[in-house]
């Protein structure tokens, strides 16, 4: 995990914004790391395309420069693409590459050894587009069920390994050239030097995968977060955590804080799990209704899941009892024990289990490290932070440079809040050092 602090830095930068369609909260925390390298953006209405919303998380590595620049400018590169009006998916893919090229042509950024993941959710005309490069992740809760909107890009994935090999690289210790644990990222220009192939074909590429969905009134919320969250909890576990918090009437920015504390390692000896920087955005779909309507929907979703779980357990118990009775009958009628093993009642993936990404297959094992310790198996997770009923404000944040205007968020916990003056919704104003497209 690299160098760690002797004690985690748990102060948080949290923000909140809302309109008739969304209630959005975000928060970020340095944790055990020596420096904070994440950035994030949430914009309810893009300046270049009013009515279109943009949410993104950038998880920097090797430094914060690339993540900070992406947080300020990526949405601009996307909306300025000529195909944006007719083909949003292509505009997202090319916008990622345009931003990467602009940073490569900037002397100050080109020499940086840093890079960043990028997971973006853009909602336009009731169509949701999720573009992802790296292992940050976005999930949705739709009618109480999980919908995974992005898939992690790891060097061990077969498709990623093939591209790395074709570009002249190799995978060692589950890393590109034994160095980078991601196979797609912004920046990391030292791994993008093959001049004979396209940017999308480099061993590490900024070219994103894009998922597309139709947003209906059955959509409850989104969670967009860096791998500091997903390394600890599965997609399904995060969904259930957020759903339960909303059902209690907790506001999104407080949910983000509580989720980070849930995932924070109790010490720095957890092999990196729970010790990373953490950034979370929770987007609640209001559909023009009060927040109380979503609270009720989440309560109903929890009740339905509990009823399904109870039904499955009852069915499993009955099947097991039948299996035992059958084996008992066989043992009474045969001198030799039954050769068949125990029944498989209730096996298979549960209806609401998470599949997420390829990397999530090992998440349950990773998460269990946080649940027990070697000196007796006692629960080692930090207790969930209680919700605060403090005053709620509006607006948005990015980690180092704010990407949208906000009012301060003040709640009862003694955590750091951001204060920005009211201004336009565009956080990345033209006075920042943006690189012009060629």
Task: Name a few traits of the molecule.
438 residues, alpha+beta, Phosphatase 2c, domain 1, 7-stranded antiparallel sheet, 6-stranded antiparallel sheet, 9 helices, 29% helix, globular, disordered C terminus, protein phosphatase
How would you concisely characterize the structure shown here?
It contains nine helices and 15 strands.
Give the class from helix and strand content and strand pairing.
alpha+beta
Straight-line distance between termini: 38 Å
Poorly predicted ranges (pLDDT <50, ≥5 residues)? Answer: 336-438
Rg, rounded, reads: 23 Å
Order of helices and strands: EEEEHHHEEEEEHEEEEEHHHEHH
Proper CATH architecture of the domain at 24-301: 4-Layer Sandwich
What level of helicity do the residues show? 25-40%
Main pleated sheet: 7 strands, antiparallel
Count the beta strands.
15
CATH topology of the domain at 24-301: Phosphatase 2c, domain 1
In CATH, the homologous superfamily of the domain at 24-301 goes by the name PPM-type phosphatase domain
Overall outline: globular
Mean pLDDT: 80
Q: Given the structure, what is the number of helices?
A: 9
Estimate what percentage of residues fall within beta strands.
15-25%
Output the CATH class name of the domain at 24-301. Alpha Beta
């Amino acid at each position: 995990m690299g160098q760690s602090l002797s004690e985690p830095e748990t102060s948080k930068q949290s923000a909140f914004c809302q309109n008739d369609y969304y209630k959005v909260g975000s928060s970020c925390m340095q944790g055990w790391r020596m420096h904070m390298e994440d950035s994030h953006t949430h914009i309810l209405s893009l300046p270049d395309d009013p009515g279109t919303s943009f949410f993104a998380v950038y998880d920097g590595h090797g430094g914060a420069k690339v993540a900070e620049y992406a947080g300020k400018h990526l949405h601009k590169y996307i909306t300025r693409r000529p195909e944006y009006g007719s083909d949003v998916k292509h505009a997202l893919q090319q916008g990622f590459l345009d931003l990467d090229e602009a940073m490569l042509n900037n002397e100050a950024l080109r020499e940086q050894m840093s890079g960043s993941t990028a997971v973006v959710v853009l909602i336009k005309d009731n169509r949701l587009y999720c573009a992802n490069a790296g292992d940050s992740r976005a999930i949705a809760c739709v009618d109480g069920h999980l919908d995974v909107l992005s898939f992690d890009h790891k060097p061990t994935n077969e498709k990623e390994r093939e591209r790395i090999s074709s570009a002249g690289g190799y995978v060692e210790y589950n890393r590109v050239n034994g160095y980078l644990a991601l196979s797609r990222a912004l920046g990391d220009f030292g791994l993008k030097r093959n001049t004979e192939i396209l940017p999308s074909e480099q061993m590490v590429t900024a070219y994103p995968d894009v998922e597309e969905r139709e947003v209906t009134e059955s959509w409850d919320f989104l969670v967009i977060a860096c791998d500091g969250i997903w390394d600890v909890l599965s997609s399904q576990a995060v969904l259930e955590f957020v759903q339960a918090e909303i059902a209690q009437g907790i506001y999104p920015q407080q949910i983000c804080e509580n989720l980070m504390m849930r995932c924070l390692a109790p010490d720095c000896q957890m092999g990196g799990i729970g010790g990373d920087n953490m950034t979370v955005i929770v987007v609640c779909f209001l559909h023009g209704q009060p927040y109380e309507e979503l609270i009720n929907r989440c309560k109903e979703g929890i009740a339905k899941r509990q009823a399904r779980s109870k039904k499955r357990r009852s069915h499993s118990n009955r099947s097991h009892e039948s299996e035992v009775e059958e084996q008992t009958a066989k043992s009474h009628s045969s001198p030799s024990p039954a050769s068949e093993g125990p029944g498989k009642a209730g096996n298979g993936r549960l209806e609401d289990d998470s599949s997420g990404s390829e990397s999530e297959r090992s998440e349950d094992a990773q998460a269990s490290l946080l649940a027990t310790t070697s000196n007796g198996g006692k629960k080692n997770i930090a207790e969930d932070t209680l919700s605060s009923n403090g005053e709620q404000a509006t607006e948005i944040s990015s980690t180092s440079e704010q990407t949208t205007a906000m009012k301060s968020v003040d709640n009862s916990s003694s955590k750091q809040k951001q204060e920005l003056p009211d201004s336009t919704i565009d956080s990345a104003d033209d006075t920042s050092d943006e690189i012009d497209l060629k």
